[in-house]
Amino acid sequence: MELKLKETFQKVKAASKTLALLTDDKRNEILRAVADAIIAETSALLKANALDLAKMDKANPLYDRLQLTEQRLRDIAADMRHVSTLPSPLGRILKDKTLDNGLHLQRVSVPFGVIGMIYEARPNVTFDVFSLCFKSGNACVLKGGKDADASNTAGVALIHRVLRAHGVNPDVVALLPATHEATGEMLNAVGYIDLCIPRGGKKLISFVRDAAKVPVIETGAGVVHCYFDKDGDVEMGKRIITNAKCRRCSVCNTLDTLVVHASRLGDLPRLCEDLAKREVKIHADSKAYEALKGRYPDTLLYKAADSERRMMAEDPSLKSIWFTEWMSMQLAIKTVASEDEALDHIATYGSGHSESIVSDNQEAQKKFQAMVDAACVYVNAPTSFTDGSQFGLGAEIGISTQKLGARGPMALEEITTYKWLITGSGQTRE
Asked: Which residues make beta-bridge pairs with 105?
């Protein structure tokens, strides 16, 4: 296994050098061809995906992430076509100056080289990563989870066919075996992998961060809040909360905890009306529980303290229910006495991903955006918009929750680096 994977890494590294010879027009042509192939081979891709779905319980929160549909494939193809229309991130002159000694300096954007991607049951990531890496002149090594192996294998095979048809070395994209051993080898591939990006749950990201010898950018894990302020509009809040929770409950920008000002507990049943229709289980603190009792379905309403005890018995590592990324139709509700208390709660339990406030008070809005330490901070809008495509970036390779380097949706510019070009006329240094 080790020798075989080392050979794979060597091939990808060598192939990455050839990408510099492709023009941006050629890259765009190939991206459009892959998008066309996705549409043309929809039935084959769905058949492969069905093999993966058959092995997973529909009640598993990852099922929705794993599932491909005709519409989702059309969306993937559309995102890839959009990427092909974006300006090239390569060759941008970031700095340009001439020193007193006559040396001319330019800082120019260039690819990282080889990007390693580790992800779970998300076959869409296969195509998203390819499109962004290829457009930015990077080769990529993909390591998907075993849950999506058939889907990922079919996707990479499609990409390889298109690359060969256009005379491009298919080794610029490699799919590793869906094993723990392969993950370990990627994380230790110093000299071959220039940057590794994990995309998945908290456990995966923590493992990659702790085990990697190659550079890592953390992405994805989201404990996401919406704060309904004392000056929040109820109808607006209801729409925002429902969309943030229910649009796709298994993705990382989904609402996990509703924080509500104590003075607005009387409006809580109205805020949660549409959640009941979608059968969202609510884990409410004592005050919120009393506000909802008899006005929210009994079968869907739980005391947060009781839920916490139950969850801790199942997982002793859990420190508090408020740290939970639900990834399902479940929501926690926390009552606060002030905006400052809301900010303290978010600072304590948030993951730095996406946070939102619903308020008509401009001072409260400004304070929230100034004080919340997260990649994306919203006013009167749902966190479901945290997405590279929604931000006009085409697709995304992940949502970075760290501060060094990229932060928020990572697209073309975020997966390039730079080098200095220095031109002289015979100068020497004293």
From this structure: 97, 422
Domains by residue range for the chain, with CATH: 2-219+397-423 (3.40.605.10), 224-385 (3.40.309.10)
**pLDDT by residue, tens only, the chain of 430 residues:** 567 899 999 999 999 999 988 999 999 999 999 999 999 999 999 999 999 999 999 988 789 889 999 999 999 999 999 999 999 999 999 999 999 999 999 999 999 999 999 998 889 999 999 999 999 999 999 999 999 999 999 999 999 999 999 999 999 999 999 999 999 999 999 999 999 999 877 788 888 988 999 999 877 668 999 999 999 999 999 999 999 999 988 888 999 999 999 999 999 999 999 999 999 999 999 999 999 999 999 999 999 999 999 999 999 888 999 999 998 999 999 999 999 999 999 999 998 999 999 999 999 999 999 999 999 999 999 999 998 778 877 667 888 887 777 888 888 888 999 999 999 999 999 8
Cβ neighbours for 175, distance < 8 A, ≥ 6 positions apart: 126, 142, 143, 144, 152, 153, 156
Task: Read off the amino acid at residue 117.
Answer: M
* 253, 399 contact by CB (below 8 A): yes
Sorted by sequence, the CB contacts under 8 Å of residue 317 that are 6+ apart come out as none
Helices (H) and strands (E) in the chain, counts: 16, 16
